[in-house]
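step 3/5: co-fold with NAP
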Amino acid sequence: MIKIGIVGIGTVGSAVIKNLQKNRDLIKSRAGKEIKIIKGVVRDINKHKNIDIPLTTDYKEVTRNPEIDIVVELMGGVDKAYEVVSDALKHKKAVITANKALLAYHRFELQKLAKTSFEYEASVAGGIPVIKALRDGLSANHILEIKGIINGTCNYILSEMKKGRNYKEVLKEAQKKGYAEADPSFDVGGYDAAHKLLILASIAYNIDAKPEDILIEGIENINLTDIEFAKEFGYEIKLLGIAKKLDKKIELRVHPTLIKKSEMIAKVDGVMNAISVIGDVVGETMYYGPGAGGDATASAVISDIIEIVRGSKKPMLGYKIPLEIEKCSLIKSEDIISKYYLRIAVKDELGVLEKIAHILAQNNISIESFLQKPRNSYVKLLFATHKAKEKEIKKAISIIQKLNFVIKPINYIRIEE
Ligand code: NAP
Ligand code: HSE
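step 4/5: write tokens
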């Protein structure tokens, strides 16, 4: 029998306990051994009266318990989780985590510590087995590009906003359904997607970047005008995580993105996630499924348990020997090149358009299309640009923002084609 200790019995932890029980015979048959959770760690035992496994508030009763083979970390957060997971690894436990924030900061240190198995399938895209696909299934490939919807909460919010619903109301609903992080600003601010992108990028490129090193923008500024513009010009707005290999440089970014309605990824709505991975040998592959929620995430956690019980330790990030042939470096955020959509609210005055167009041209930004939406007391100008450098668009926006006829903060969304 394999004995498990579980740290954190919230949305995901309770779904793991429930589904291990529900599919017990099948799981035993696939793993080859009976699996039993013998201890759980929570903050407040009184909240968990319906759980019929022994509980504690002291994680060491799990990480240092000689009876326990596998520690499953489902508590979230970075510092405390790092303490728990390191302690488990130091005490020779196999470890499973769903914690992308932890991995975004400490994956390379944990890889060094992990003499035992360390699996983390649930940390990216909930129920989609994209870690195993990238690390194992695509291991023969140089990865040219990863592009995906990797935050269920944001995709749910953007999908519901298309129906005219209010951002705050839909976010509350996503929290109720167990999709959002304990602090939902990690979701809507793009940080959760960035954590996941960094995990994928370290498997694809062995690159040790931190969230602070990459471009991260969330969906907080998207409004119904942007959604209307997208509709009118044949786009969908999606929060995307993008990793691209350009020569020996890697571009990593997370931001709301306008993508053509005809693209497969544009059709992915609700809590569903989808990730396109392009390998130099295989070409484009695509992974789709539920990106958040207790059951979907438990499916991935239990698959890690089965994998570990079956045996054969895999290199955590997929490299047995460090990849020395080509050391990749990160492209600076300011040098990223993209097309942009700009939303500028202005007073309805003579010469406004000419001044804006002039500033854009002075900063090497050429306009591809333009739409003017009159409102009662002002006008909304919506521009789509040709490709421009991040630093040039930011400079142009800061100059235009200061013009006295500009009456609201300018919003921009990158366009990916
Ligand atoms: P959650 O519902 O907030 O549950 C967290 C659990 O951890 C609770 O049982 C809590 O105890 C316990 N906990 C927190 N801090 C603790 C501490 N210092 N000591 C002991 N126990 C502690 O979170 P969740 O949604 O299940 O997410 C868990 C992890 O999975 C996170 O890393 C999250 O990012 C990741 N994840 C979540 C999803 C999802 O859809 N929810 C999907 C993929 C990955 P109490 O119950 O006593 O408060
Ligand atoms: N909060 C995350 C999301 C959970 O909405 O995608 C899954 O990682």
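step 5/5: annotate
The chain has 14 helices and 18 strands.
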